[in-house]
Amino acid sequence: MQGVNALLRRVPVWAVYLLGALPAPYLFYLGLTGGLGVEPIEVLEHEYGELALQLLILGLAVTPLRRHIGLNLLRFRRAIGLLTFFYVTCHLLVWLVLDVQILGQIWADILKRPYITVGMAGFLLLLPLALTSNNWSVRRLGPGWRKLHRATYMAAVLGALHFVMLVKGFQIEPLIYLGLVGLLLLLRAPVRRLRTA
Questions:
Q1: pLDDT tens digits, one per residue of 2-46
Q2: Within a 10 A sphere around the Cβ of 52, how many other Cβ atoms?
Q3: Dihedral (C-alpha) 138, 139, 143, 145: value to the nearest 10 degrees?
Q4: Does residue 169 lie in a domain region?
Q5: How many Cβ atoms from other residues are within 10 Å of residue 11's Cβ?
Q6: Residue 151: CA count within 13 A, CB half-sphere
Q7: Residue 186, pLDDT above cutoff 80
Q8: Nearest-angstrom CA–CA distance, 33 and 134
Q9: Rounded to an integer, what distance in angstroms lies between the CA atom of residue 119 and that of residue 98?
Q10: How many domains are contained in the chain?
Q11: Which of 21, 77, 79, 56 is closest to 161 using CA atoms?
Q12: Can you give the pTM of this predicted structure?
């Protein structure tokens, strides 16, 4: 794993931002040109949301990967987190601007549809995390910064639940995402060392 980590240290962080953001305009282009089928808005909304959830899970995996197999992705964690928020925002904007469009209907959907309520709660949890993902905030908040960013755990649970609740009928894919979130949260739990007598 040392060789892989040495190679990763040579990857510039800006390249992660660039490559991570590229699917967004490409998917939007496909939607405009008919490449997303007969329901392009629905597909675009789903694709952005799924990318956000995948990145959220990847962000949760950074610590377990380092702890259990020695893969060090720590220098990319901020980029992963901000890309997560970027795709959550894209997902939300497609729903707001292209799907619902009517302000009164948006508020009604948030209140009446549980999966939307859960999704919006996850977005609101991620918002302060994105706003404080900078060096100034880390210095300013001190130890409170780490506590604040533990909200990522709940946001991941809410994101996975949002996916499970919105699908029709029994589908395995959302349950896999929910299971991965649960597993990663267990793996991130602090290891308690047994005291020897």
A1: 888 888 889 999 999 999 999 999 999 999 999 999 999 999 999
A2: 25
A3: -20
A4: yes
A5: 12
A6: 16
A7: yes
A8: 37
A9: 17
A10: 1
A11: 56
A12: 0.90
Is residue 148 situated within a structural domain?
A: yes
Burial class (CB in 10 A: 0-12, 13-18, 19+), 148: middle
pLDDT for res 187:
87
pLDDT score recorded for residue 105: 81
**Residues 95, 194 contacting (CB under 8 angstroms):** no
Show the domain range for 127. Answer: 2-188
Task: List C-alpha distances in Å: 186 to 56, 133, 171, 189, 190.
Answer: 16, 24, 24, 5, 9
Distance CA 126, CA 152 (A): 7
- 149 falls within a domain: yes
Give the per-residue pLDDT at 61.
94
SS3 content of the chain, % helix, strand, coil (to 5): 80, 0, 20
What are the structure tokens assigned to 111, written together? 């209140």
Residue 181 is assigned to a structural domain of this protein: yes
* Average pLDDT estimate for 101-107: 78
Amino acid identity for residue 14 in this structure:
W
| pLDDT of 170 strictly over 70 | yes
Q: Chain-centre distance of CA 68, in angstroms?
A: 22
